[in-house]
Design goal:
With 280 residues, the chain is an alpha/beta fold. Helix content is 34%, strand content 22%. The chain has ten helices and ten strands. An eight-stranded mixed sheet has the order 6-3-7-2-8-1-10-9, with helices on both faces. A two-stranded antiparallel ribbon has the order 4-5. Helix 1 crosses helix 5, helix 4 crosses helix 6 and helix 6 runs parallel beside helix 10.
Length: 280
């Protein structure tokens, strides 16, 4: 059967993608950010997943205020990088494991998760930046990628508990797929940041680190955190971190923390990153 062997949490700051695309990763400002991903690239080469299940949020690229599904699973054969206003990123087309994606869609819906199945969708920096920080600039992405977009842009977003349980359902779906595949699941977004109004530029280092601690050791408790705490402590965009709980829900109850990276600032946000492996 297919199996989820590890999970990876990662910020998807758009400026990180720009720094990679423009060859600025060794500049004084950016070098500490990318130094924290050197071990991650080595780990990805060793993990060598066949498929990445990548949880991210669309930034009004594939969706707009007229239609924003809570959970949207990509079932197309491939996904082109989106033009977010300055041209598409010069990154490879994202290729899907279409048969597995269709299987997961069926499994989730029969498991009573009302997801939207996308047969046409462009992907923005929310998906491509996490791939870039662990894979660099390859001609093709080394793994097939199944994207799932989560609404954390327009009220009401799903709860952390709903995302955590979705991760458990994704694991059941993957493990019922009758092919021997190594799957790594990504949860992306965050960490603490606010982009507008009086608290623009907010970063809460202590809260971010506690979130990472609890993600490893107490995901059940973390799943009960209400939206208002994300808003109060991590800023209006901090709610993106509920997507890390999808990743965590797909793993064993007990995991090994392989790597952690935290840096402030990158653009106007905190960069967070964690790699968790199942013990089994």
């Amino acid at each position: 059967m297919a199996r989820i062997t590890a999970g990876l949490g990662c910020s998807h700051v758009p400026a990180i993608g720009v720094a990679i695309d423009q060859g600025k990763t060794e500049e004084e400002y950016w070098q500490p950010v990318f130094a924290g991903f050197e071990k991650s690239r080595q780990w990805m080469r060793q993990a060598n997943p066949d498929v990445i299940f990548l949880v991210y949020n669309d930034h009004c690229t594939a969706f707009d205020s007229s239609v924003i599904p809570t959970f949207a699973l990509g079932a197309a054969a491939e996904f082109e990088p989106a033009d977010e206003g300055w041209g598409p990123r010069p990154v490879p087309v994202v290729r899907n494991h279409q048969i597995m994606a269709s299987h997961i869609a069926q499994s989730l819906i029969l498991d009573e998760f009302d997801i939207t199945v996308m047969h046409e969708m462009q992907v923005d920096h929310g998906l491509t930046v996490p791939l870039s920080v662990v894979y660099g600039q390859p001609e093709e992405w080394p793994a097939l990628v199944i994207p799932m977009a989560v609404n954390v842009v327009m009220y009401p977003p799903p709860t952390g508990n709903r995302c955590y349980n979705l991760g458990k359902a994704i694991r059941r779906a993957v493990e019922s797929f009758d092919e021997d595949l190594n799957v790594v699941i990504f949860g992306t977004g965050g960490m603490s940041h606010q982009l507008q109004y009086k608290r623009a530029g907010l970063i809460n280092r202590e809260w971010d680190q506690r979130f990472l601690d609890h993600l490893t050791t107490d995901p059940d408790g973390l799943a009960q955190m209400p939206h208002i705490e994300y808003l109060r402590e991590a800023g209006s965009e901090g709610v993106e971190m509920v997507m890390w709980l999808v990743m965590r829900g797909a793993l064993d109850d007990e995991v090994v923390e392989v790597h952690r990276h935290y840096h402030v600032p990158a653009s106007n946000t905190a960069v967070g990153h964690i790699i968790l492996e199942n013990k089994g």
